[in-house]
Each structure stands twice: as C-alpha cells, then as structure tokens.
Amino acid sequence: MIARLALIAALTAGPALAGDASGFDPAGIDQCLAAAPTQGARADCAGIGMDACLAYAKRKYTGDDADFPMANCLDASHQAWEAKLGSTYDALLATQGKKGIKPQEMLRQAERSWIQFREDLCHQMQDSAGETSGALAQARCIRDETARQVALLMSLGQLE
C-alpha cells in the first residue's frame, strides 16, 4: 500500500522529469499537436509516445512489479503534457492580458476550476478502478485530461 501511495505521489508530481531516461520522447507531443487540425484531433494526442516508451521500459526494467513500466511511462507522459500545458496557458494568458485585466482573470479562474475538476474526476477514476489498478487509472486520467486542456487552450488561442 505504501508503494502504491508513493507511485500516486510520483505520478501527480510536477514536470520535473520530462525528457528523462524513461524512453518517452516529449517531442512527439509537439509533432502530433502540429499535425492535428482540430481541438478534438489534438486531444487524441494524449497517448502519443506511449508505445515506444513501454517497449523501452519493458526492456530496461527487470523488477517484479508488472505495473512499473506503465506507471513510468504515464509519469513521463504526464510531465511532458504538464509542461506543454504551462507554456500554452502562459501564451494565452499573455494574449488575454493585452485585452485587459478582466479576460486575463477570467482565464485564471477557469484554469483553477479546471484543475479542481481534473483532480476530482481522476480521484473518482482511481476509486472506481479499485486498489490494484487505481493508481494507473488515476495517472492515465490526469494525463488525458491535461492533454484535453492543452487542446482546448490551443483552440482558444486560435480564436484570437
């Protein structure tokens, strides 16, 4: 149980290891987003790079935790998406700032609300999945919701 809690903490940590030796290539996110013509297609980029990461992790990991390669790759993917979310949000916030304080504050409040929504939704996913696969379900949910938010913010930026 303690190992599962440590895994959850690691999976929800901020973007510290993106581009590490996990086998996950964050450049794939930018390539997928650039090639995707719509918000929906951009949201489909959430799992980009996972196959290569899993193949790499399964070759490198020799332990007895069957979930470790997936947890490792979800962590690396999530961190890369968090970094992309931060840069996308900052760019949109700067654009909104040129319109005045009210649009900028509205964006900040919307992002705070979204963060709470993501945490609540993904915690529910963890609870629904049960103890065995709950941490992975939560990590996948957080990564996928972060990718969806990046797609949404990119679309808002294109409306400018």
UniProtKB/TrEMBL annotation:
Source species: Paracoccus limosus
Keywords: Signal
Protein name: DUF1311 domain-containing protein
Cleavable signal peptide: 1-18
Domain Lysozyme inhibitor LprI-like N-terminal: 63-150
Signal recorded as keyword: yes
A Pfam entry, by short name: LprI
Gene3D superfamilies named among the record's database cross-references: 1.20.1270.180
Highest taxon listed in the record's lineage: Bacteria
